[in-house]
Predict the 3D structure of the following.
Amino acid sequence: MEFSKPDYDDSIDGLNLDQVTIEANNIRLKKVDSPLPKGWVGNQKFQLKAFNNNVEKEILLVPYADAGQTSGVISTWLKLKK
């Protein structure tokens, strides 16, 4: 499967980026088919195991070129879980 580098966009799942962490040795992207925000241009969305305030949570990522189109906070980098 080919896709561009995914980014986090908080307008998709509403988590505070400062509280999201990932484990470096457990990065597995899974393509998912679920709705994106109304009017979103593009249709690729990926799921990644992460942590929100140290609670395991699946976060959603979109291709770099698609992120930010609804004025959400975006990030290419996510903090590592300590």
